[in-house]
Design goal:
By secondary structure, the protein is an alpha+beta fold. It has one domain: Orthogonal Bundle (Ribbon-helix-helix fold), CATH 1.10.3990. It has three helices and two strands; from the N terminus they run E-E-H-H-H. It has a two-stranded antiparallel sheet with strand order 1-2. It is globular, with a radius of gyration of 15 Å. GO terms for molecular function: DNA binding. InterPro entries: RHH_dom (IPR027373), RHH_sf (IPR038268). This is Putative DNA-binding ribbon-helix-helix protein.
Length: about 100
């Protein structure tokens, strides 16, 4: 087996915290950078902000799962499932036209 990590930008593994307002309440969500990249592409494809996308996913999860959910886990799972369904285009390299 090859060295998988050598093939990827290691910054994508770094955790990033972002503050998002959900239902009028500010919250902080900590995810690996690669998940934020996927969420940004999903939000852009839907024509909404990341805050709106996260709010919608949180509301759907609470309804579907009958109560409190671990939002970071929901977001990671959605990203993985969406990648499996239809992988988004890779991010453009700096300087690409």
């Amino acid at each position: 087996m090859g060295r998988y990590l050598d093939e990827h930008d290691l910054h994508r593994f770094a955790k990033e915290s972002r503050s998002i307002r959900i239902a009028g309440h500010a919250t902080s969500i900590r995810l690996e950078a690669v998940f934020w990249e996927i969420l940004e592409r999903l939000a852009a494809a839907e024509g909404v902000s990341i805050a709106k996308l996260v709010t919608t996913l949180q509301e759907e999860a609470v309804e579907a799962l009958d109560g409190a959910v671990n939002l970071a886990s929901v977001l990671r799972t959605v990203c993985v499932l969406r990648q499996r369904e239809r992988p988004p285009a890779p991010p453009e390299s700096p300087g690409a036209s």
